[in-house]
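Quick one, T. Sequence first:
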Amino acid sequence: MSTTYLLIMAVIAAICIFFARKKSSDAASIKETTMSPSERVIQVYDMDEAKLNDTIEKITRNYAEKEEEHPTVVIQQDGIIRLTFTPETDYISFCYWVNYLVYCDEEKQKRYTVYGWYPFGELEINGERQPFSNQTVMLYVDKNDTQYDNISFVTPDGSHYLQPFAIFNNLKPIVGGSESYRHSPNPETQETQ
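Structure tokens:
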């Protein structure tokens, strides 16, 4: 199969999953019992401003239903574009943003370099408190990802997790990952690391 076909199918699958998640959000066992008051940040390293603006417009027009799922500030400095989201932006919506930004260019078959920092509040999975509660994790798409619908994240202590989108109840720890933890570019979240 061609890479273009796989990318198109992955985007379609992500869109379908996004809407399914919206309709059955209570099916997920991931529950933040408290939300961090810190902003969420995404940095895009190799995308031009025109492509970013087009991508943001597509996401907000077609997929982001609530205002808190839209970036509130977009800043470009030294070749890095920084998107800031409100503290009300939930984890799964933030994961979709990171994934979509990585794979947004089907025509050129380019995979963009994108990292996100999500400050968790108190987090439970199946009623069990998670060790990364009250920590800011760094989200990324693993360099070896071939499914196009996963997000990985690394905690400040170097623990890696995989978040597939295909089914709920599926966050799992993994051994290693392609990225090392980097501190958030948002000074507000530094104290939670």
